Amino acid sequence: MIKICHLYPELLNLYGDRGNIIAFVRRCQWRGVDVTTREANLGDPVDFSDTDFLFLGGGSDREQDLIAGDIKRRRAELRSAIENGLVVLAICGGYQLLGQYYRTGDGRVIPGLGLLDFYTEAGGKRLLGNVVIEVMLDGALVRVYGFENHSGRTFLGETEPLGKVLAGNGNNGCDGWEGARYKNVFCSYLHGPLLPKNAGLTDHLIALALKRRGLDLPLIPLDDRFEKRACKVLQDRLL
Ligand code: GLN
Known about the structure:
Layout: E1 2-7, H1 19-29, E2 35-40, E3 53-56, H2 61-72, H3 75-83, E4 87-91, H4 93-98, E5 101-103, E6 109-111, E7 118-137, E8 140-156, E9 163-167, E10 177-178, E11 180-182, E12 185-188, H5 194-197, H6 199-212, H7 225-238
Parallel strand pairs: 1-2, 1-3, 3-4, 4-12, 5-7
Antiparallel strand pairs: 5-6, 7-8, 7-9, 9-10, 11-12
Helix pairs in contact: 1-6
Bound molecules: glutamine.
Residues 14, 58-61, 64, 92-93, 96, 149-152 line the site of glutamine (GLN).
């Protein structure tokens, strides 16, 4: 049984981010893996130590502001779960909340959890459009496709990037990196939603969650012809 927690679904759910949960759940179920999904909003109790996959979507600056205080109270528990290998996917606004801070366009600083070493500052022009990145998954370079729409420019400190930008802007439009990665935490600006478009990445997250539960088995392959064709269309258009 894999236990999923969708944190702040009412506030962080831009551009179909919920589709990430649907893709994760379906690809488990198609293989006979039981899954439960729990939604946790502001103030709801969450036991991160009893969670296998945590998802945080994107939101506007306003939503990030509303969440900052609530998520701060969860910091110590989230931190220890992450150190224990909790699988996390955080998109855009959710990504920014895991870093040091986000400085908005009007100069307000929304504190982040500082669990990963990066900071984000809003820039003048929104970074918007389709993105292709190259990500190392299990020793193989995999192309990951998505859509970005953010004014924040993220700069990584000690934290590793998730991938290298092949098309689009990524973290800041200048250093060529996209997202961040630490242990089993995957952060990205890519909406899309990300997981339905990228079956290989979804399976990687599922495999990590199962492995943490002591099930280190190869996943049964699924029929991904449609997903592959969709990626091919994007590849031909963007690269
Ligand atoms: N407030 C953030 C930004 O514009 C997040 C946007 C998002 O989640 N799409 O940078």
